[in-house]
Design goal:
Layout: H1 2-16, H2 18-21, E1 26-28, E2 32-33, E3 46-50, H3 53-63, E4 77-83, E5 93-102, E6 111-121, E7 135-141, E8 145-155
Parallel strand pairs: 6-8
Antiparallel strand pairs: 1-5, 2-7, 3-4, 4-7, 5-6
Length: 158
Amino acid sequence: MIAHRFAWVLGLLIVATPSMALGGGVSELPFVVVPQPIAGRLNQGQDRIIRDQAEWEQFWASQFPEHPAPAVDFEHKLVVLTALGFTVSSGASIHVTRVTLRHIGTLLNPLVTVHILETRQRASCIGTGDGSAPFEAIVLDSYLDVTFRRTSKYLGCR
């Protein structure tokens, strides 16, 4: 009886997640970028997950008080926020390039990684202008474990 149950559970794992049976697979997840009505004001660099409407509305009001927060179905979705922080670097930007799903551990708790590209000038460049505080918010399906992986790209002086 125990051997039969073990074989059934093992068979379920192999059928439900063939990539796990082959040593773990990675797949890309779709996401939607939240449009910003104007430039944001996030002075601190951060990577953050927003999982409920109250927190989302509070964040949005802190950045765009004259604009209502875009609708998000927090029963099934979450918001990922990534911010570069204040910089006087010309051409500074931050973008989510992709979101990947990797089955590590259990079927019920896959690992989601948000891949981020930050671009700025080298520290030796002298910045001019008022500066900026770029950030990007995306909406994707809700998962328990979300991690961030940042890649930096440094531009020459202009």
